[in-house]
Amino acid sequence: MEKKDLLVFVEVRLRQNSDYGSGADSVTYSKQTKIINTAKRYLQTSGHKWENYRFDVVSIGKQIDWIPGAFTLD
């Protein structure tokens, strides 16, 4: 997703049953690493010089929660 000069990578997670936590809870460190590596590859091959980007999570369950800047490269 693009917003002016910002590129936003959005991970959307659905949980129909909240017994095991929210969709956002399912974005583990391992999953974040995979998303970050995919984003790095995209940034290298896209041909754009993106300087500003972030990682958001949209969690869908009984409600929809959008978490801007849910995690970083650090």
Task: Show the helix and strand layout.
Blueprint: E1 2-3, E2 6-14, H1 29-45, E3 52-60, E4 64-71
Write up this protein:
With 74 residues, this protein is of the alpha+beta class. It has a single domain (2-71), classed as Trna Endonuclease, Chain: A, domain 1 (3-Layer(aba) Sandwich). It has one helix and four strands, in the order ββαββ. Strands 1-2-3-4 form a four-stranded mixed beta sheet, with helices on one face. Helix 1 (29-45) links the parallel strand 2 (6-14) and strand 3. The longest helix is centred in the middle third of the chain and has 17 residues, at 29-45. It is elongated, with a radius of gyration of 13 Å. The two termini are 21 Å apart.
Largest sheet, described in full?
4 strands, mixed
Radius of gyration: 13 Å
Proportion in helices: 10-25%
Mean pLDDT reading: 90
Name of the CATH architecture: 3-Layer(aba) Sandwich
> Distance between the terminal alpha carbons, to the nearest Å?
21 Å
Percent strand equals 35-45%
Return the CATH topology. Trna Endonuclease, Chain: A, domain 1
By DSSP, the count of extended strands is: 4
Order of helical and strand elements: EEHEE
Write out the strand line-up for the largest beta sheet, numbering strands in chain order: 1-2-3-4
Task: Tell me briefly what this model is.
By secondary structure, the protein is of the alpha+beta class. Helix content is 23%, strand content 38%.
List keywords for this structure.
74 residues, alpha+beta, Trna Endonuclease, Chain: A, domain 1, 4-stranded mixed β-sheet, 4 strands, elongated
